[in-house]
Amino acid sequence: MIKTDVLVIGAGPVGLFAVHQLGIIGLKAEVIDNLDKIGGQCIELYPDKPIYDIPAVLECTGESLTKSLLEQIKPFKTNFHLNERVQEISKEKNNWKIKTSKDKIFIAPNIIIAGGVGSFEPRKFPIEGAEKFENNGIYYSISDKNYFKNKKICIFGGGDSALDWAIELSKFAEITLVHRRKEFRGAGHSAEIVKKLEKEGKLKIKTPFQINSIEGQDKINAITIKDDDGEIEKITADCVLGFFGLIMKLGPIAEWGLNLEKKHIPVNVENFQTNKGGIFAIGDICTYPGKLKLILSGFHEGALAARACFKLARPNEKYRFEFTTTSKNIHERLGVKKSD
Ligand SMILES: Cc1cc2nc3c(=O)[nH]c(=O)nc-3n(C[C@H](O)[C@H](O)[C@H](O)COP(=O)(O)OP(=O)(O)OC[C@H]3O[C@@H](n4cnc5c(N)ncnc54)[C@H](O)[C@@H]3O)c2cc1C
Question: What is the pTM of this model?
Fold first, then answer.
C-alpha cells in the first residue's frame, strides 16, 4: 500500500506539470500511466513534431517538451508506475483508495485525473490478418522516424498526421499516400505540399482507395488497395502506416461515479474539482465553458488544482502563496542555491 498526498492519473504533459506545481508547494505525488512511457499524446502521437505554442519556448517537439517537463520535476523524485491502469477508486474515511490493474493500492486524500482522452487507442485497419503484422510492418504511430529510412511505405489516412508524415518521410523513403476520399481533410497547406511533392515525383497519391489485403508471411511484401468501383491495385511495400485517428476510450474512469459530459469530466474553474471532493480533473479530459484543449491550458489547470489539493493534504496548515523567484521554501524544495 502506497500513501501519498496526491495520486496523479496520467503522465502526459499536464500530469507532469501538475507534479511540479504540487512539488513546489511541498506535496508529494505518485503518477500512474497505462502506457509504457511518459509523455501522453506528445510521446505516443507526435514525438518528432514541432510545437510552437508553449509559452516562451519558440519551438520544441513532443519528445523534447516531455524531457524538459521531466527535468523540471527531477528534484521531487517522483515515482512513476507505468504500464498500469487505474481501475477502481473508493472512499475510505478522508482518503481515496485507488486500485490499479496490477492490484497495487494507493491511499491519498487527493486524486488529480490528467487522463487526456482516456486509454486512447488508434483506430486500426479493418481487415483480416492486420493484427498479425502490428508493430512488425503495420504501425499506428511513429516513435523513431529513422527506422523508416529507405523503406517502401504506404501511408493511409487523410488527416493531419497522414499528411505530415507523408511529407516528412518522403525526404528519405518511398511513399504512397492512400486515402478513401478524393479530398484530404488535413490542413489545406499540408494537402498542397503533398500534391506538389506528387508533381515533383517525390511521392505517390492514391485516392479514393482503401486497403483490401496485406500480403506476406513473416513480413509484409505488398498490399492491395481497391477503389470505389472495386478495382484492385497491388503496391509493393515494406511498411504500412495507418493514421485514422484515435478511439476515445474513457475506460474505467467512466465507472467512478463522476459526472460526465460527452466523455469529458465537468469541473469548476475555481480549482478544477469534479463533482466528488478531492478528485480533480485537468488537461484534455476536463471540460468547462470555453475549455481549450491545449497544453498551456492544462498547465494553468494543474497550478490551481495543486493549490486546492493542499487543503485536503495538510488540513491543519494554511496555504501561503509564494513566488518561485523569492520563496526560500520553494528554493529548498527545488534544491537551488539559497536566495539572499
Ligand atoms: C498531432 C497532435 C498535435 C498537437 N499539437 C499541439 C500543439 O501544438 N500545442 C498544444 O498545446 N497542444 C497540441 N496537441 C494537444 C496536446 O497534445 C494535448 O492537449 C495534451 O497532450 C493533453 O495533455 P494531457 O496530459 O491532458 O493528456 P494526454 O497527453 O492525453 O495524457 C494522458 C495520459 O493519461 C493516461 N491514462 C488515461 N487513463 C488512464 C488510466 N485509467 N490509468 C492510467 N493512465 C491513464 C494515458 O495513457 C495518457 O498517457 C496536439 C495533439 C495532437 C494529437
Answer: 0.73
